[in-house]
């Protein structure tokens, strides 16, 4: 099952038709191209943060910090109340070897950019989990010789970023390789044993039957190794799904697979089950709206499920036009929404209350042409979605959008922000 996260990414930037968004191509799910090379200095390591409750790691949505037009994690925190992020993805080096990289290209050992993002999140009281694998690319379970060496590679990631949580995203093409799956499950078991309290999720493809043949073989491997993570999560999208009802039906079916595989009763199976959705338009054209997320959230909480997450925060903002001309984007949802609508369902799953949607600032700042500043461009508006090249006025300066943005004040995130300062009006 191809997912947009597999199709958007890589080193070459492409313009998404009709969306006005600059993203990278190809293999974003398993590739972190378009890496910000001008990383903050002095961020070679990140201080260990106090662990959040497991419920926050279970609610952490996926975020690509180096690709698919990364949004500001701290602004998402302010706007939605979100505290935890699932950073994606760790792969083997594209040139071969058993060492961890971001997307096959950026070695973890020398990373400063992702470390800087993590430090900023932790400075605001949040934390991260890191996801390994994804769709496409070479996984460490394929590149490393056994479970022990695979675990040693992942331990480097845990140590580098002082992690309290990790996600094993096992799917194409790795989960068709029985030796690689054995290495991954074995590594997960070793990490669980060697890092007491580590929150471990295992994510795989979803089907109407719960999961497919390879997903079942992965469950069988876990059983044979005596490994039980905090949850096994399925991704019920890109498989002919049609809204929330089809997704909850798949979750019910998957619960039965967990029961029969591990000998659990229904409630124990739900306590080890997770949902990983896709917000907005999926790669195959399925549509999952805010109301679908609410329905699945109600199902998850009502059945005592362990995890509720989605792909991805990079997409949790409105395209321009909102339906993106019937296409799927890696940097917006292709459905009408306010920025970070879908993140708020994760916040609710964690047991917190998202902040009010009422803006704390006036929706339009008084910097229009009639102001003493003399700016000719229209005033920046928090409710307006801007695309690359759009010009606004704010604080007596003219600003040009570098990429798609909404509800990000010009100048609020310095050189890493979406706006280029063109100087005083």
TrEMBL record:
Keyword Signal (UniProt): yes
* A Pfam family reported for this protein in Swiss-Prot or TrEMBL: CBM_5_12
All residue ranges annotated as the Chitin-binding type-3 domain in the record: 377-422
| Location of region: Disordered | 351-374
Q: Cross-referenced InterPro entries, in alphabetical order?
A: CBM5/12, CBM_sf_5/12, GH, GH18_Chitinase, TAT_signal
Chain intervals with Pro residues compositional bias: 356-366
- Tell me the keywords, alphabetical order: Hydrolase, Signal
Q: Which residues form the signal peptide?
A: 1-24
Any keyword Hydrolase?
yes
Superkingdom of the source species: Bacteria
Q: Which SUPFAM superfamilies match?
A: (Trans)glycosidases, Carbohydrate binding domain
- What is the designated name of this protein? Chitinase
Give the species.
Streptomyces tremellae
What taxonomic classification does the UniProt entry list for its organism?
Bacteria, Bacillati, Actinomycetota, Actinomycetes, Kitasatosporales
């Amino acid at each position: 099952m191809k997912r947009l996260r597999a199709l958007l990414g890589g080193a070459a930037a492409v313009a998404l038709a009709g969306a006005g968004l600059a993203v990278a191509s190809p293999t974003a799910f398993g590739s972190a191209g378009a890496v910000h090379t001008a990383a903050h200095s002095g961020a070679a390591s990140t201080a260990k943060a106090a662990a959040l409750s497991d419920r926050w790691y279970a609610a952490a949505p996926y975020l690509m910090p180096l690709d698919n037009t990364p949004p500001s994690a701290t602004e998402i925190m302010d706007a939605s109340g979100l505290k935890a992020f699932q950073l994606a993805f760790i792969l083997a080096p594209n040139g071969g070897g058993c060492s961890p990289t971001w997307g096959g290209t950026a070695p973890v050992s020398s990373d400063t950019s992702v470390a800087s993002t993590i430090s900023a999140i932790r400075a605001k009281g949040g934390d991260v989990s890191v996801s390994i694998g994804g769709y496409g690319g070479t996984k460490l379970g394929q590149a490393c010789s056994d479970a022990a060496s695979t675990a040693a590679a992942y331990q480097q990631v845990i140590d580098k970023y002082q992690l309290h949580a990790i996600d094993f995203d096992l799917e194409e093409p790795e989960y068709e390789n029985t030796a690689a799956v054995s290495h991954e499950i074995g590594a997960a078991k070793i990490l669980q044993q060697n890092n007491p309290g580590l929150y471990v999720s295992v994510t795989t493809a979803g089907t109407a039957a719960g999961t497919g043949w390879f997903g079942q073989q992965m469950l069988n491997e876990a059983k044979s190794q005596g490994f039980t993570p905090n949850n096994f999560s399925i991704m019920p999208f890109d498989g002919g799904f049609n809204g929330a009802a089809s997704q909850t039906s798949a979750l019910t079916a998957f619960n039965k697979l967990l029961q029969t595989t591990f000998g659990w009763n229904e409630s124990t199976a739900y306590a080890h089950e997770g949902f990983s959705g896709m917000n907005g338009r999926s790669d195959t054209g399925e549509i999952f709206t805010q109301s679908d997320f609410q329905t699945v959230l109600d199902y998850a909480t009502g059945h005592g499920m362990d995890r509720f997450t989605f792909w991805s925060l990079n997409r949790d903002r409105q395209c321009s036009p909102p339906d993106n001309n019937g296409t799927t984007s890696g940097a917006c949802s292709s459905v009408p929404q306010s920025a970070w609508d879908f993140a708020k369902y994760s916040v609710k799953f964690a047991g917190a209350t998202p902040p009010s949607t009422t803006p704390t600032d006036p929706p339009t700042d008084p910097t229009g042409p009639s102001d003493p500043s003399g700016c000719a461009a229209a005033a920046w508006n928090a409710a307006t979605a801007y695309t690359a090249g759009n010009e606004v006025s704010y604080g007596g300066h003219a600003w040009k959008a570098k990429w798609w943005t909404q509800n990000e004040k010009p100048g609020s995130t310095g050189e890493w922000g979406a706006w280029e300062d063109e100087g005083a009006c």
